[in-house]
Amino acid sequence: MRDPRYNKGLAFTEKERETHYLRGLLPPAIVSQELQERKIMNNIRQYQVPLQRYMAMMDLQERNERLFYKLLIDNVEELLPIVYTPTVGEACQKYGSIFSRPQGLYISLKEKGKILEVLKNWPERSIQVIVVTDGERILGLGDLGCQGMGIPVGKLALYTALGGVRPSACLPITLDVGTNNEQLLNDEFYIGMRQRRATGQEYADFLQEFMTAVKQNYGEKVLIQFEDFANHNAFELLTRYGTTHLVFNDDIQGTASVVLAGLIAAQKLLGGTLSEHTYLFLGAGEAGTGIAELIALEISRQTKAPIEECRKKVWLVDSKGLIVSSRKESLQHFKKPWAHEHETVGNLLDAVKAIKPTVLIGTSGKGQTFTQDVIEAISSFNERPIILALSNPTSQSECTAEQAYTWSKGRAVFATGSPFDPVEYDGKIHVPGQANNAYIFPGFGLGVVMSGAIRVHDDMLLAASEALAQQVSEENFEKGLIYPPFSNIRKISAHIAAKVAAKAYELGLASRRPRPKDLVKYAESCMYSPVYRNYR
């Protein structure tokens, strides 16, 4: 009863109460898991404040694991915004104040030289997926230091609920290397180390020790997902460890894969191919350059043109304006491939007028940057402009669904990063899609784990995008949606896992032999079920 993995509360049967000496420790009523689920959903709906709902869900996870996942799977559309973006962002900001029981593993600079020992303190031996953050760039909220733990915990809850990876095989980790957030350093409830961030060689050595220890302790088939690292470290880590470890960066690769899926699906809605479009991004960080690269890669695969040629269809605007070749000397390395020949353009509106894009994508982390002028401009030379406002949480979205549909006179094909309600314009209901990474990473992770893949290859990301795009039905298209509803997410994840695993086998990266005949069925059979077990 005290162990969340085995606890069933009032659902313990007469026989179980007798056998396991639980008589008298529980009230006499015996109820079903379904009734427990109904009761807790009623309780959660009583809370007006999303953060209270988040705390109630976390409390349930610490008390009764199977019931927590049953709730999340059966009410995914209602609870996803609670356990993940946007509410998890607020939870991270206030993590010190709401902290009651530790979840996951905290590895700080104090543990330097002893990281392997710390990993051995985690009670589970068989780990398949690790989500790790250093808390430097949490969503669009910036440096939250040690309090970024809410993100790995939330992500792994989704690996289980949506992708079916066993909870005991998931390990959330926060690397505490300090924080530069003055507010946190002066907050009496802050739970992390009170010092400025380690950088340079000290940081690199710490990460090197961590990556080596993970491989030594869990083998090379453990998937390490980097999460919410700052731009300069994210690219560096992916490049450095991509060839030696099974690593995946959700902000760069997961976001790219889910956006590409939406763009592939939009071609079915509008007709035509990806190569016929011109893409303009606001934001040239991890998400922006990651999506841009995957779009160029897919166009290159489809047209057989060299990738350098395909990159020319994609333009990026950063804080200093359009990225053009005359700025090349001063650009960070990850922006350089996107510096094309063009005169300098200082802002987004002028860039829209100059480039005349058919697709506008926001990954800036800055709210209200797709202004009325910008949306009216792109709508003036496109019958159906594709507009994706991807920044999280909701407050940081480049524009709202209502603004996008109103300013484009209902013509935009629109999706966002955080959820928005349907909008009525001119007598028609428009349902905005949500380009949520939760469509991709749980199924992607399951595909990697079930095939025993030893490396992540870009072709596996393209396979995931294509699998997701295939799940959008005619009925979804009629509503203007370019993503399927989340209610079918486990079915969608099984299809994504199967396509990712198939690609891993094709590339010779899979180590699980023999290859299962029907990969979709195999994926479904691997998925964790939250239904209570009977105890002898």
UniProtKB/TrEMBL annotation:
<feature type="binding site">
    <location>
        <position position="137"/>
    </location>
    <ligand>
        <name>(S)-malate</name>
    </ligand>
</feature>
<dbReference type="InterPro" id="IPR012301">
    <property type="entry name" value="Malic_N_dom"/>
</dbReference>
<dbReference type="InterPro" id="IPR012302">
    <property type="entry name" value="Malic_NAD-bd"/>
</dbReference>
<dbReference type="GO" id="GO:0046872">
    <property type="term" value="F:metal ion binding"/>
</dbReference>
<keyword id="KW-0521">NADP</keyword>
<keyword id="KW-0560">Oxidoreductase</keyword>
<feature type="binding site">
    <location>
        <position position="392"/>
    </location>
    <ligand>
        <name>(S)-malate</name>
    </ligand>
</feature>
<feature type="binding site">
    <location>
        <position position="228"/>
    </location>
    <ligand>
        <name>a divalent metal cation</name>
    </ligand>
</feature>
<feature type="binding site">
    <location>
        <position position="227"/>
    </location>
    <ligand>
        <name>a divalent metal cation</name>
    </ligand>
</feature>
<feature type="domain" description="Malic enzyme N-terminal">
    <location>
        <begin position="61"/>
        <end position="242"/>
    </location>
</feature>
<comment type="similarity">
    <text>Belongs to the malic enzymes family.</text>
</comment>
<dbReference type="Pfam" id="PF00390">
    <property type="entry name" value="malic"/>
</dbReference>
<feature type="binding site">
    <location>
        <position position="436"/>
    </location>
    <ligand>
        <name>(S)-malate</name>
    </ligand>
</feature>
<dbReference type="GO" id="GO:0006108">
    <property type="term" value="P:malate metabolic process"/>
</dbReference>
<dbReference type="InterPro" id="IPR001891">
    <property type="entry name" value="Malic_OxRdtase"/>
</dbReference>
<comment type="subunit">
    <text>Homotetramer.</text>
</comment>
<dbReference type="InterPro" id="IPR036291">
    <property type="entry name" value="NAD(P)-bd_dom_sf"/>
</dbReference>
<comment type="pathway">
    <text>Photosynthesis; C4 acid pathway.</text>
</comment>
<feature type="active site" description="Proton acceptor">
    <location>
        <position position="155"/>
    </location>
</feature>
<feature type="domain" description="Malic enzyme NAD-binding">
    <location>
        <begin position="252"/>
        <end position="505"/>
    </location>
</feature>
<feature type="active site" description="Proton donor">
    <location>
        <position position="84"/>
    </location>
</feature>
<dbReference type="InterPro" id="IPR046346">
    <property type="entry name" value="Aminoacid_DH-like_N_sf"/>
</dbReference>
<dbReference type="InterPro" id="IPR015884">
    <property type="entry name" value="Malic_enzyme_CS"/>
</dbReference>
<dbReference type="InterPro" id="IPR037062">
    <property type="entry name" value="Malic_N_dom_sf"/>
</dbReference>
<feature type="binding site">
    <location>
        <position position="251"/>
    </location>
    <ligand>
        <name>a divalent metal cation</name>
    </ligand>
</feature>
<keyword id="KW-0479">Metal-binding</keyword>
<protein>
    <recommendedName>
        <fullName>Malic enzyme</fullName>
    </recommendedName>
</protein>
<dbReference type="Pfam" id="PF03949">
    <property type="entry name" value="Malic_M"/>
</dbReference>
<dbReference type="GO" id="GO:0004473">
    <property type="term" value="F:malate dehydrogenase (decarboxylating) (NADP+) activity"/>
</dbReference>
